[in-house]
Amino acid sequence: MPNIELFGFSDPFDKEVRKRVIKALKGVVPEKDIVITEHNVKVTNVRGRLAPFIRLTTTPIPELNQAVEALKDIPFDLEVMLLQQFHSAKK
How far apart are CA 21 and CA 17, in angstroms? Predict the structure, then answer.
């Protein structure tokens, strides 16, 4: 299950980024598997300039490279973190 984390985006801009993420991943990753986490934090570089970014956290999935390429079209820094395991709460 890919978890797309949005760091440093403020409302209403975060809603636009969220829409772009969903649109970018449409047809790449099953929509039912996508989770979006919005972190309401201020992110800056060392000079105090705002530096919002997107993080994709997922287990290795066949669609990973395609998902990364789709998300790279959104003009913000992108981090990719691979999880070794994911255990769904659903039984």
Answer: 6
